Amino acid sequence: MFKRSFHSKDRAGKSVRPSKRSFREDQKLKLQQKLDSPPVGSTLTSPIITLVVGQEPRIFAAHEDVLSLSPFFTAALRGQFYESATKRVALPDEDPQVFSCVLEYLYKGDYYPRLLFNKRRASFELEDAQDPHNIGGCGSVESTVHISGAGGALLKDTVIYCAAERYGLDELKRLALRKQGLQSGITVDVILRSARFAYDNTPDSDSKLRAHYLALIIRSRKTFKRSGTMQMEMEIGGSKLFFDLFVAMCNHVDDIVDIGNNRSPKTI
Known about the structure:
Layout: E1 20-22, H1 25-36, E2 48-53, E3 58-63, H2 64-67, H3 71-76, E4 82-83, E5 88-91, H4 96-108, E6 115-118, E7 123-126, E8 144-146, E9 153-155, H5 156-167, H6 170-180, H7 188-200, H8 209-219, H9 221-225, H10 228-236, H11 240-263
Parallel strand pairs: 2-5
Antiparallel strand pairs: 1-6, 2-3, 4-5, 6-7, 8-9
């Protein structure tokens, strides 16, 4: 079991619930004000779009103005995915659970569990993560999701990051990455499977999520080098992940050597 926190300083100790405010509260407040007093052309007066999501379709509905916050949907509402007569968009390859989070973000500026700021500790934490009274249901903060064809559980925030990449939502990518950094108790197999998923669903130019996984593995190398799962994954190969990991490890060693040379010049 991989028990190291992405950022150990963000672990909470006491179960006392301090005063909190949610991430991007000011932006959500502005959105609520617009909803309470909608001007002409606002989200409440724009057409309702039906979205058919997944291989076993689930139906969602959203305002056109809200969907248009995403460049993907701006194009989709004018392209082949859109049935203008019925105001319907088909997304057969999307996962309904993931899309639900994306839609929640478009309306509220966040998705469950929300990112909260703990004033007492001056750090961020996830909603309900430290509440001992929340057992099951909405109170249980589930860190993984199951996506068809993935071969097992994936980190939810990684999947949402990749969805945000498809939909052109850079702020959602930043939010998902920050939330993932607060997760702990994640097993090696879930981390490696999620890393492969990240590499398969982000461009080579991605400098955030991929680097996040490389840094995590290097930082926790003692755990990963003892892992049979890590050995099996590296023997299977088939992903740019492992070459990038090799390069990152080389850079890490070079940094150590440079620090040592500054103190006592030598070579390796």
